[in-house]
Amino acid sequence: MVTARLDPGGLLTPSLSPYLVLDGSIAHQQLSTILSEHIGFDEFQQLLATDNQPPRLFVGAVDPLNGYPATFTNEGVTLDALLASTALPTLFRAVEINDRPYWDGVFAQNPPIRQFVTTAALPPIDELWIVQLTPQSVDETPTTTEAIADRMAQLVGNLSLQHERVFIEIVSEWAANGYLPEDRFATTTIRTIALPQDKAAASTVDRRRSFVESLFADGRTEAIHLLEQLEIYPHAVETWCLKRVE
Question: Shortest CA distance to 60 belongs to which of 37, 77, 40, 44?
Answer without folding.
Answer: 77
